[in-house]
Amino acid sequence: MSSESIALTGVREPSSSFSDILYSWVTTVDHKRLGILYILYAILFLVIAGIEAIIMRIQLIVPHNHFVSPQTFNQMFTMHGTTMIFFVVMPVLFGFGNYLIPLMIGARDMAFPRLNAFSFWLTAFGGFLLYFSFVGGYGLYGIGTAPDVGWFAYAPLTSKTFSLGHSTDFWTLGLLVSGFGSIGTAVNFVATIVCLRCPGMTLNKMPLLAWLNLIMAGMVVFAISPLTAAQVMLSLDRFLGAHFFDTQAGGSAVLWMHFFWIFGHPEVYILVVPAFAFISEIVPVFSRKPIFGYPIMVAATVAIGFISFGVWAHHMFTIGMSSYGNTFFVITTMVIAVPTGIKIFNWLGTMWGGQLQFQTPMLFCVAFLFQFLIAGLTGIMLGAAPFNWQLNNSYFVVAHFHYVIVGGILFAIFGAFYYWFPKMSGRMYNERLGKLHFWLLVIGFHLTFDFMHIPGILGMPRRIYTYEPGRGWEIWNLIVTIGTFLQAVAILIFVVNLLYSVFKGRLAGNDPWDAWTLEWSTSSPPPEYNFARIPTVLSKRPLWDIKHPEDPDWDYE
Amino acid sequence: MSSNAISQASIEQQWSLPYKGHVGMLCLIAAESAIFTIFVVAYIFYIGESLSGPTPREVLELPIFATVCLLSSSLTIHAAIGALRKLNNGGFRLWWFITLALGSIFLIETGREWHHLIYDRGLTISTNLFGTTYYSLVGLHAFHVSVGLIGLLVILLLALAGKVQQEHSKNVDTFALYWHFVDVVWIVVFTVVYIIGR
Fold first, then answer.
1. Dihedral over Cα of A428, A433, A439, A440: its sign
2. How far apart are CA A214 and CA B167, in angstroms?
């Protein structure tokens, strides 16, 4: 590439002035920068939503505590849930997808770079809109009230009668706006993966991360849209006096539940499929073996994608569906465990007989395998309708889905952080701090969420702001709160490690893990155009072929 | 390694993937279909559930003329792109203008229907469940028609300025996918609202 053509593409000299740097980040359409923006945005909201969780746990540490008022407690669990799902986990997964997909499939950018930037800013604006309710919830008086209807906002709590002011409207509009952002990102993911793969990368040679993100994007297209539609209906109810969820005029509160969970359950798989993608990339590299059962992995994920749209009413066993409805949703819930189990066996098969290297990313992946298994098992317990009638809306449910989202998804995300941090920053993280982060988080996680199952079985309902002494719940709540603080310290160590290593870490080089996918063939961090020459691939592990020309993979595929 | 180099070159020559505009638009259409599905489900769920009048049978009349206009606009936009592919820019502009006109007639007819329902029949979105579901479903479709009309108008203005040429037929085709989708959705809405629901 001549210097003239570089000048024509408008690349400017790097400038050190703060306003220039800010300008270049705000106006960027580069998938790598947008990916990093998504991730930083998610870390910001992770800290905020984490503080909300700690406020709840301090309130529950002893019976009859007066740390916060009941109203504040309701706001805290609503904001914590909404923020963690929509403004932490979704953005961080979109961030990694944005950063990695074009690099892994040998493309220079996403299919629609400007749509990509637009989607990010919509998501960001949605988050700020939600949090603006703290100051603008009653209009512009500066006296705020955050939404307090719970993250699934059942009717009629959200009606004008029971939810005064505009806090619920901020919740609705925030999710509506970020939902458009998610759909835009999903459209972009699909178009990028379908249309921009480098020569030779047929669908069955694509890295699993790209495959699983393709499936995730397809699920976003079909799952976020029902939420968007339901939010529009709720807004019509609240602003124009429509009656969708107004039981006084013949409307149905149960319809909202169906609409919410037809989004809500695929959403869980939207969050966990990219986590599967991280595990599927990291485990082979640290086992020094190719992934075991590649086509089965893809097929199992496609199966999960389809079945996940037929399980939603297992959130609603207690509303009194017909026995046929109950039976159907019990069966589909049991069925979806099968492809999920297949994946776990595939990862174990990948590790079996490999030269395992327990660096920080691999530690997080191994913990994921154990914890996600337990999360799945309690999920099967809750998927059985009679068991669910007993424990629905108890702390057992809270413990179960935190096991999925923290023990499964968050651990996989941290593994991905450590694995791709050298590529994104060009520097290695501190291995000792990384391991400290891991062990503190494991201990804190198990203290909190293992013991949280027990008060649930003993009958403690979720979302209560305090409880009576003498029910046998005190000791468990105390342990759970102690675990929360250990997790907070672990996250703090992670942030310190991140900040320290970005500036002071030792240089990583292009390929610190001796890995096999295309992103490791670029410099760290990659140049703006990713690849000076678009690569051609002949196998699933193009870098293996380059490193071992005497024994390339394409001889065996 | 020489066989490797040869196969690389042949792979690069044969490599072709779908056009990203089409794939992106089809994804958007899938998302839109899911949104419409939820509104249609709500409409069907609430048929006959209103606690007070007016009922659909009392107030709704079949919008045959508007339907014919909208559906035939799918044919005219197809003809327009065919003309563009054959380098017939005048034909493109004519067919494109007819498409815009047909779509506009549909929107005006919807407006007249709503005016009649609101001022003569007293049916608003807050009157009963029929009003709630009717205005939201038909309104959602009318909103999509409006977005389509804006797109049609922008492309018409670009064409009049001579900015739409044969090499843009793929881009114009991508937009036409959206317009076809709006028409197909109308068939569903028409069936649900004016035939099943009435």
1. negative
2. 30
pLDDT tens-place string over residues A204-251: 999 999 999 999 999 999 999 999 999 999 999 999 999 999 999 999
Is there a contact between B35 and A200 if contact means CB atoms under 8 Å apart? no
Q: CB neighbours (10 Å) of residue A48?
A: 17
ipTM entry: 0.94
The pLDDT value recorded for residue A5 is 39
Q: Are A258 and A319 in contact (CB under 8 A)?
A: no
Give the tens place of pLDDT for each residue, B50-101: 998 899 999 999 999 999 999 999 999 999 999 999 999 999 999 999 999 9
- Asked if the C-beta of B44 comes within 8 angstroms of chain A's C-beta atoms, the answer is no
Paired strand residues for A394: A461
Residue pLDDT, tens place only, B58-69: 999 999 999 999
Percent of chain B whose pLDDT exceeds 70:
97
* Token couple for A315: 């959130």
* Interchain pair A226, B34: CB under 8 A: yes
Nearest to A111 among B8, B20, B31 (CB): B20
Q: Which residues of A touch B132 (CB under 8 A)?
A: 236, 242-244, 251
| Single pTM value for the model | 0.94
CA angle A539, A515, A534 (to 5 degrees): 55
Cβ pair A553, A544 in contact under 8 A: yes
Residue of B nearest to A256 (CA): B42
Helix (H), strand (E), coil (C) string for A177-190: HHHHHHHHHHHHHH
- Which residues in chain A land under pLDDT 70? 1-15, 137, 139-144
Tell me which chain B residues have a C-beta less than 8 angstroms from the C-beta of A109. Answer: none
**Is the Cβ of A255 closer than 8 Å to some Cβ of chain B?**
yes
